[in-house]
């Protein structure tokens, strides 16, 4: 048993037409008759229709007099020069007026007829085509339906918009009396499957006058099935016919809404009773629909232009702000609020190597790390957009409702530099016209049983809750991300020449500065020592001096100590950058215990509880390793010393080919807004200014860890800070 999907049904070659139409097909070269609808004998005086095959229309001058006298048929070659372009005329057959339509499709010319029907109730005035004066999308469609109702006069008229997934939604409606409203309802993709949408793009007006009437078969000498795509009377598929019946309608008429050469939607009209619409009225409905479509396209273009102008202005302002900063990272951080707002996001993360700065509603650091790792492994393009990130990757990455939608822009993939925008989960409810789930039925075609998705029998409201999605990122949001990208590229390019020119100078200056720092730090040690000794002698000899004098001398001594400490740290920083290193396996246990005990004495915190667990060996330079542990442990003891129960925990663990040390304290913590400054030289946090220090220690640690092939990161909250040191495992 074969299964036929809706999109596989050959609806363009049904082999029959509707009863209101009459069709004759002639060979495009010889003009001989090759096929016709069985009902043409009802209109033309033809005793035996079979005699028509392989003959010309002109071979039957009495029967086809109206056709022969038509201007179109008289110049058939001129009117069928272009493929699928339809021309209309009116002819008289047996004292009745008929519409006569002609077009060429491939090797055949189609001659189609239908009786002229006068609509005495049609009322059209000039005001109905003034779509271009309307500055509101909804009003354009409402006015279109109001205009068409004067021509078509069906029970229900709707504007049906196609969604990106092929489903549709009723966005405008005009109905009579107590007819149920479908406004706002969604329809699944299977209601108008892909091949039907393709036909709506080719044949833009489609009528089913009476879904209950018998169809008229096509009699043909052609081996292949006749393609009836462009015929007005093409018969409907059994599936669609049953669908219309199930909806409670007996007649249906639709006009395609084409915008930018794409099928944007349909004007769909339904009538409870069978009803035919005259060809001229159908053409006029198509003209009004085209006018409304163009007006909507113009409205959208104007709206898009205004948005672009506003976006350009904001981009220019952002560019000016970027150029005020000395680095791209600082530019991004200083303008993070505007960067978040441009694509209308709820949150933003700026990732620069180990630094991550957030704005608005964004995930915690551990989740961000997982997202960044996932992006590096799975995203190949420079810009990645998803509104279903939570639904698709929520369990895998430990996401919550703040990360339902995401845009990732790689600034420099090799340096792990990227921008990530976030959108919260959107509580989405879709009201379907009936349950969209597919049901399978068996039918017989040409003696063969087949399975096919059956048309829905219910159009009652069915509400579906959609979880894990954000609001859709629209084209304007994507344009805003592109604008941020362009600002980054342009400002980076402008700075490139300057940076290139200064780079050599900076390198030379840095070398001189480091040399100077080393010399100054070393050579000033002796005079500072002399100054301190003299100050201490003055203090000791001040037997009867005032307390004020003693305080001043003590202040001098403290400042000398601070200066000496700073010079010592600068000297260590210089050594960390330039001194030769010798990597070897080093035992850390004794070193850590000794530094920990000295730290309690140095910071006068004998009550500090320092818990030292496993201390595995690491691969490092011995002198530099001492500097690393000295700075980190000293900081942990110092910044927790004001706690009622100061506590420091030190533990090393093996992880594959790396050794990870975690040094945690219950001290003051690091404010979120200052985390990106942590490893910058001379940087001191606001909450740390009551403690002695000069902001050099962590810069030393950062520089050393990079030189020995390791890494340093941290985690912090109001309850304290943990520094994570990653070393290579010693060679066996």
UniProtKB/TrEMBL annotation:
Q: Which residues form the Phytochrome chromophore attachment site domain?
A: 136-314
Q: Which family does it belong to?
A: In the N-terminal section; belongs to the phytochrome family.
Identify the residues that the record assigns to the Histidine kinase domain, covering every copy: 519-731
Q: What top-tier enzyme class does this entry carry?
A: transferase
What this protein is called in its record is histidine kinase
Top-level taxon of origin: Bacteria
Reaction(s) this enzyme catalyzes, per UniProt: ATP + protein L-histidine = ADP + protein N-phospho-L-histidine
Report any Pfam family annotated for this entry: GAF
For this protein, the record's SUPFAM superfamilies field holds:
ATPase domain of HSP90 chaperone/DNA topoisomerase II/histidine kinase, GAF domain-like, Homodimeric domain of signal transducing histidine kinase, PYP-like sensor domain (PAS domain)
Instruction: Cite the CDD domains for this sequence.
Output: HATPase, HisKA
Question: Which keywords does this chain's UniProt record carry?
Answer: ATP-binding, Chromophore, Kinase, Nucleotide-binding, Phosphoprotein, Photoreceptor protein, Receptor, Sensory transduction, Transferase, Two-component regulatory system
Enumerate the Gene Ontology biological process terms.
detection of visible light; osmosensory signaling via phosphorelay pathway; regulation of DNA-templated transcription
Q: InterPro entries, alphabetically?
A: BphY/WalK/GraS-like, GAF, GAF-like_dom_sf, HATPase_C_sf, HATPase_dom, His_kinase_dom, HisK_dim/P_dom, HisK_dim/P_sf
Please give the organism.
Chryseobacterium daecheongense
**GO MF entries:** ATP binding; phosphorelay response regulator activity; phosphorelay sensor kinase activity; photoreceptor activity; protein kinase activator activity
Q: What stretches pass through the bilayer?
A: none
């Amino acid at each position: 048993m074969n299964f036929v999907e809706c999109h596989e049904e050959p609806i363009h070659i049904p082999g029959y037409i509707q009863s209101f139409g009459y069709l004759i097909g002639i060979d495009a070269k010889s003009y001989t008759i090759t096929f016709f609808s069985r009902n043409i004998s009802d209109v033309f005086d033809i005793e035996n229709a079979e005699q028509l095959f392989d003959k010309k229309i002109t071979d039957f001058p009495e029967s086809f007099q109206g056709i022969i006298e038509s201007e179109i048929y008289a110049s058939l070659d001129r009117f069928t020069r272009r493929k699928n372009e339809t021309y209309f005329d009116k002819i008289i057959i047996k004292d009745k007026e008929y519409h006569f339509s002609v077009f060429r499709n491939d090797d055949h010319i189609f001659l189609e007829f239908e009786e002229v029907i006068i609509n005495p109730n049609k009322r059209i005035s000039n005001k109905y085509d003034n779509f271009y004066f309307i500055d509101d999308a909804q009003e354009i469609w409402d006015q279109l339906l109001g205009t068409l109702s004067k021509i078509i006069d069906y029970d229900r008229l709707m504007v049906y918009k196609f969604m990106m997934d092929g489903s549709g939604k009723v966005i405008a409606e005009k109905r009579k009396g107590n007819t149920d409203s479908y406004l706002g309802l969604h329809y699944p993709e299977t209601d108008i499957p892909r091949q039907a949408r393709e036909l709506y793009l080719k044949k833009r007006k489609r009528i089913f006058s009476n879904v209950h009437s018998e169809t008229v078969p096509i009699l043909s000498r052609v081996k292949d099935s006749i393609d009836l795509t462009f015929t007005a009377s093409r018969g409907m598929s059994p599936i669609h016919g049953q669908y219309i019946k199930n909806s409670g309608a007996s007649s249906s008429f639709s006009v395609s809404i084409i915008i930018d050469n794409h099928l944007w939607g349909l004007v769909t009209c339904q009538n409870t009773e069978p009803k035919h619409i005259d060809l001229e009225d159908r053409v006029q409905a198509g003209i009004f629909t085209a006018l409304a479509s163009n007006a909507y396209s113009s409205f959208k273009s104007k709206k898009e232009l205004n948005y672009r102008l506003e976006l350009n202005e904001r981009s220019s302002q952002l560019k000016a702000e970027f150029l005020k900063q000395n680095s791209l990272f600082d530019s991004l951080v200083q303008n993070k609020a505007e960067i978040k707002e441009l694509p209308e996001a709820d949150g933003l993360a700026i990732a620069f190597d180990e630094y991550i700065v957030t704005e608005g509603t964004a995930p915690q650091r551990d989740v961000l790390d997982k997202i960044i790792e996932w992006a590096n492994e799975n995203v190949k393009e420079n810009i990645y957009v998803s509104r279903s990130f939570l639904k698709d990757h929520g369990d895998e990455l430990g996401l919550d409702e703040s990360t339902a939608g995401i845009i990732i822009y790689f600034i420099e993939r090799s340096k792990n530099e990227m921008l990530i925008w976030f959108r919260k989960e959107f509580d989405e409810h879709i009201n379907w016209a009936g349950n969209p789930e597919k049901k399978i039925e068996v039918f017989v075609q040409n003696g063969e049983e087949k399975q096919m998705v059956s048309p829905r029998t219910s159009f009652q409201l069915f509400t579906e809750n959609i979880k894990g999605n954000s609001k859709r990122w629209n084209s304007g949001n994507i344009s805003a991300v592109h604008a941020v990208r362009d600002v980054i590229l342009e400002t980076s390019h402008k700075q490139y020449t300057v940076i290139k020119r200064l780079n050599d100078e900076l390198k030379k200056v840095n070398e001189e500065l480091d040399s100077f720092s080393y010399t100054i730090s070393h050579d000033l040690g002796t005079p500072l020592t002399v100054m301190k000794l003299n100050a201490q002698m003055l203090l000791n000899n001040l037997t009867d001096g005032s307390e004020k004098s003693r305080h001043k001398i003590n202040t001098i001594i403290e400042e000398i100590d601070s200066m000496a400490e700073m010079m010592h740290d600068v000297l260590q920083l210089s050594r960390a950058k330039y001194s030769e290193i010798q990597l070897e396996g080093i035992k850390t246990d004794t070193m850590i215990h000794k530094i920990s005990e000295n730290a309690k004495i140095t910071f006068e915190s004998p009550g500090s509880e320092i818990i030292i667990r496993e201390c595995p060996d690491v691969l490092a330079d011995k002198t530099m390793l001492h500097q690393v542990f000295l700075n980190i442990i000293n900081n942990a003891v110092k910044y927790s010393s004001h706690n009622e129960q100061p506590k420091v925990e030190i533990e090393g663990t093996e992880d594959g080919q790396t050794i990870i040390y975690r040094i945690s304290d219950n001290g003051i913590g690091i404010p979120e807004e200052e985390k990106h400054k942590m490893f910058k030289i001379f940087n001191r946090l606001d909450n740390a200014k009551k403690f002695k220090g000069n902001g050099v220690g962590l810069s030393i640690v950062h520089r050393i860890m990079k030189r020995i092939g390791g890494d340093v990161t941290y985690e912090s909250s109001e309850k304290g800070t943990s520094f994570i040191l990653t070393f290579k495992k010693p060679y066996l």
